[in-house]
Amino acid sequence: MAASDDSERIARRLARAGIASRREAERMIAAGRVRVNGKPIDSPALNVGPRDRVEVDGKPLAAPEPARLWLYHKPLGLVTTERDEKGRATVFSRLPEGMPRVVSVGRLDINSEGLLLLTNDGALKRRLELPSTGWLRKYRVRVNGTPDEVRLDDLRRGIELDGERFQPMQVTLDRQQGANAWLTVGIREGRNREVRRAMEAVGLTVNRLIRVSYGPFQLGRLEPGAVEEVRARVLRDQLGLGPDPTEVGAGHSGPRAGAGARRKPGPGKGPAGKAVQGEGQGAEAGAGGRFGGPAHGSAPGGSGPRAKPASKPAADPGASLRTRPAAQPNAKDRPRAGGTARKGPAPSASRPARGPGTEARVKPALAKPRPGRPPRGGGKGPPPRR
Asked: How many domains does the chain have?
């Protein structure tokens, strides 16, 4: 149990394993329910390393789960706490069944709505909350009043309120709608009720506040009360970490089809690998969504519209194995009507017989003169008629 670079507090180890929160883990330790290397402990002031054996209620502690992150659309009327002393409904009591124990990255008050990040890892929670990450948090804010550029410039330069200095905000006036106005506000700190307090300081009252993004993560069309997990690879990319060597397919997209391996046709492709018209066209255009998720409105599985049946009949799979039809005889080899077949030279072995209707006319060869007899007609002009 000596301190090392890989060691951590026992309460944090219990929280990472999903047993309980840190405070609840400390109460479990005080009750004598936790053993380390076979010995019970009564104080959370203890560091444990990877080789230390931790038991809770006599059962070995499971290995810590990898860090995970979820996008949650918080509705109005929920408080961002695990337990509320006033008995109000909490965010964690409304999460879908099957969710592991999670904590929130930052908070949204009971009258605010929009994107709330949830994670199962306390270290990731603290990392995402730090202003040093430089992640911008954007809000759609409806205020009562008529904001002008003078008051908005005060927020853009940064204001001091009750001895507390607020960093400059990004403020854009979207539109004036009757007695209310819609603003888009971007902050990087995330202090308690920062946007509401800053607007009140310049004479504007917030009557609706929606968080639409937290760094690279967008609310998009996520329905109120819905949860969507961020892919592990996307999370690592956004945090600037390298690929996880334990992740399936890390560093490559899959095995290549090498020599002796036949590439299987993908969805929307025919036997020859050519795209079939109307198949899979919505998959490529609609992929992505919020960081790799399926785009909203696309068909399940990413498939596009079904292909229409081809107008031509399907090819017979055995057609390529059939023998070709025998070549048709030449016209001069065909039997005449009421006579015998015309004699002619047989087709050369190196030159196959031509098909019907394609043979060229052969010029008749001139008769050779007999020896000692001049050619008919004296070799001048056409031969005389008989």
From this structure: 2
